[in-house]
Write a structure and sequence with these properties.
The structure holds 2 protein chains of 2 kinds. In chain A, about 75% of the residues lie in helices and about 0% in strands. Chain A is mostly helical. Helix content of chain B is about 75%, strand content about 0%. Chain B is globular and about 85 Å long. Chain B starts with a helix and ends with a helix. Chain B is mainly α. Classes of the chains: A mainly alpha, B mainly alpha. At the A-B interface, helix 3, helix 4, helix 9, helix 10 and helix 14 of A face helix 1, helix 2, helix 7, helix 8 and helix 11 of B.
Chain lengths: ~400, ~325
């Protein structure tokens, strides 16, 4: 009850603050239209935003450890979150600045028009790509290496039960968490990328075939795709994985999952490729190529494909996010990428119990969030870039 | 016949046809693969008696069409077969006294729980998303709009379990406001049940709000260039009233459509979220059955998920016809 009263009181105070702020603005600026036409609700919004900002700054500088040496976990997590956002924004800003001064005229122009979110996205994707390629060189230990000590606390401080050899600690069977996180970039992202490529090869080929040949071929393929799309994709892939798990296990099951998800996802690609292809096959240059007597492969790969690249590329980004999230969800459920391959979804599942120690060991609790955050960060980055590309190509400004 | 009723009947028939074909696909996925399922499921150490028992129980000795028709007829009458989970195969070989749980018995209470979770989520998410979308359209290109845009893009692209664990961290572990485990029993009061459902419902809300809010914003902004909106503005109506009274009713079709599609998306999201919170719903049953290869339960859950998905898509279709006069009276 008292909580409700507190909230109501806060709203009244903020409303009064907004009214005073508007009045002050009107008197100080000589009744400028900005303040004159401001509704009370907007003034309330400004005051609320300012109050939240002030509270955030005040909270940030609260002590993270009490006088008795007990960590105040909420403050610690808040600091990490704020620092993460600030560092990310600063890195994106510097990256965009470098891009604007270095490189060819075209790339400099591109960076000049780029919003900060898109620069952040490009930077994150580059870092992930580097991590994935150089994982064996960067990781301090192997992904399958099992060490003598299990459950070493992260932080590397021997007094608190850490070990400098394992900065993020070890998991419950004694594998280095930092190394597995780095190898996760290779396995999780690599497998998702391969799956998306496979889905595009399948869906693109059949979509263009249907668009070129029309007739019964188009009918059969389209109706098959309609049926497959009527089943939710995660549910259908779980059903097929159940069936596959009766025949294969371990690495074979990972391969089976890749094929299953690629086939299910290729239905979405088929739709797009067919629609784009339909618009292209009615063009005069296709007619000319047909009259020259070119065969079907030439028509599809030399005439239609080059003209369909732009929409397919934007779709590739979105599809990759979708596949990546599906594979992570399956791995989290224990049915995706199979051990001993290091994978972020599986790591979240295995380490999730650490969250409960958050109030007295913030570092340990952050480890499962790191793995989950690694997944989230990449999809957010790809989405930022795709959002920017779509905005640019469609000319949508408002 | 009234053209609207005709269209609705057509869509319903189409939906039923889709469901029928989907049931064939689900059945075929399990039954048409090469090799003997009974041997595959038992592994190498299977005795011939056990293999024969499973084969008899699954009806693998009959031809596929008969089996499918029997399964379909059973499913229509609510009999989805026996679950493997609580049945010991050895009991089939000797005396058949082992207690068996039917799939329907397992699914029924969990189905109600999942519906409750989805209902709570929809009750929070739909008003929240539409309000946010209207506000973002009203104050477009302001700081508020940009913050809302970035945060919804972030929440839409995060995996469900990331959002779930962040919420657990802040609302259950650091500030113990809500329970992080949703252990729900049949004879639980509404208030307590709601409290235990709130955290998974909030997670799902974060997942589905983003799409609905962006769509509401886009649908309203699309209309703002129309002459009648300009007329309303020139009359001197307040911006909020222009949007709520003039733009929103005409933007309803795409908004209703995206709401129904997102509720359909909830069906997929529910699986992961139920596992995180150990919520006793149909999604968790599905994942558990997949892990122990309890084929009858997996098939039944799949059929239920697909039916709900088709039904919601159908509803989206019909509602968007009903809300648009031009579609209601086709030329």
């Amino acid at each position: 009850m008292s909580t409700v009263l507190w909230i109501l009181g806060a709203i009244v105070v903020l409303l009064a603050g907004g009214w005073v702020m508007r009045l002050a603005g009107q008197t100080l600026t000589g009744n400028k239209p900005f303040f004159r036409d401001m509704p009370l609700a907007v003034a309330f919004g400004y005051v609320l935003g300012a109050a939240l900002l002030l509270f955030g700054i005040w909270y940030y500088f609260q002590p993270a450890v009490t006088a008795d040496g007990v960590p105040v976990a909420s403050v610690q997590f808040f600091r990490w979150a704020v620092q993460g956002v600030l560092i990310g924004a600063a890195a994106a800003f510097v990256f965009r600045l470098i891009g604007r001064t270095v490189g060819t005229a075209g790339s400099r122009k591109m960076f000049r028009q780029m919003p900060l979110t898109a620069a952040f996205g490009v930077l994150v994707i580059l870092i992930y790509a580097l991590l994935a390629i150089f994982a064996p060189a960067l990781a301090p230990h192997g992904q399958e290496e099992v060490f003598g000590q299990a459950n070493i606390v992260p932080g590397g401080n021997p007094a608190l039960g850490g070990n400098p050899d394992f900065p993020l600690g070890t998991d419950q069977i004694g594998r280095d968490i930092l190394s597995r996180l780095i190898y996760g970039a290779q396995n999780t992202v690599g497998i998702a990328f391969a799956t998306t490529v496979l889905a595009f090869v399948l869906g693109g080929t059949f979509g263009f075939l249907a668009a070129t040949l029309r007739g019964w071929m188009d009918q059969v393929l389209s109706r098959m795709v309609d049926v497959l799309m009527a089943i939710p994709s995660l549910i259908f892939s779980l059903l097929l994985i159940t069936v596959a798990s009766a025949w294969v296990s371990g690495f074979g099951l990972t391969v089976a999952m890749v094929v299953i998800i690629a086939v299910i996802d290729s239905t979405r690609v088929f739709r797009l490729a067919r629609a784009v292809g339909m618009n292209i096959v009615v063009m005069d240059y296709i007619e000319a190529a047909k009259l020259r007597g070119e065969g079907l492969p030439y028509l599809i790969f030399r005439e239609i494909l080059p003209n369909a690249t732009a929409p397919l590329l934007a779709e590739f980004g979105l599809r990759f996010c979708f596949v990546f999230l599906t594979i992570s969800a399956l791995s989290f459920l224990g049915l995706g990428i199979q051990p001993p391959l290091a994978d972020w979804g599986t790591m979240v599942k295995d380490l999730s119990a650490f969250i409960n120690y958050a109030s007295f060991a913030p570092l340990a609790a952050s480890v499962p969030l790191l793995a989950a955050g690694a997944i989230a960060l990449l999809t957010v980055a790809v989405n930022f870039v795709v959002d920017w590309m779509l905005n640019r190509s469609s000319g949508l400004k408002d | 016949m009234n053209p609207v009723i005709k269209i609705i009947l057509q869509r319903l028939a189409l939906g039923l046809l889709t469901l029928f074909i989907v049931s064939i696909v689900i059945f075929a996925a399990v039954n048409m693969l090469p090799g003997d399922f009974a041997e595959a499921i038992l592994g190498q150490g299977a005795t011939p008696e056990a293999v024969a028992a499973i084969r008899r129980d699954l009806g693998l000795d009959q031809d596929p069409v008969t089996r499918y028709l029997q399964w379909l007829a059973g499913a229509l009458q609510g009999d989805l077969g026996n679950s493997f989970a609580q049945a010991n195969f050895a009991s089939f070989v000797g005396d058949d006294s082992g207690v068996r749980t039917t799939v329907a018995q397992q699914i029924a209470p969990r189905f109600a729980n999942t519906m409750f979770l989805a209902g709570v989520t929809a009750a929070i998410a739909v008003p929240f998303a539409v309000t946010l979308g209207v506000l973002a359209a009203l104050y477009r290109n302001s700081v508020f709009d940009k913050v809302a845009n970035i945060s919804t893009l972030t929440s839409i692209s995060s995996p469900e379990f990331f959002l779930a664990y962040v919420l657990i961290l802040f609302l259950a572990v650091l500030n113990p406001l809500l329970p992080s485990l949703s252990n729900i029993y049949a004879d639980m009061g509404f208030g307590e049940r709601l409290q235990k459902t709130l955290l998974p419902a909030l997670t799902l809300t974060l997942v589905v709000t983003a799409h609905m809010m962006r769509m509401t914003r886009a649908a309203i902004i699309n209309l703002l260039a129309s002459p009648y909106i300009e007329m309303a503005r020139l009359k001197g109506i307040k911006p909020m009233r222009v949007i709520v009274h003039h733009a929103l009713p005409n933007a309803l079709a795409p908004i209703i459509n995206v709401i129904a599609l997102n509720l359909a998306y909830l069906i997929t999201g529910v699986v992961v979220v139920e596992v995180v919170f150990v919520y006793p719903g149909i999604g968790q049953l599905f994942v558990d059955s997949v892990k122990i290869r309890d084929i009858p339960v997996v098939q039944a859950c799949c059929l239920i998920f697909a039916a709900a998905y088709i039904l919601l898509n159908l509803t989206a279709d019909i509602l968007s016809i009903l809300s648009n006069p031009r579609l209601r009276h086709p030329k």
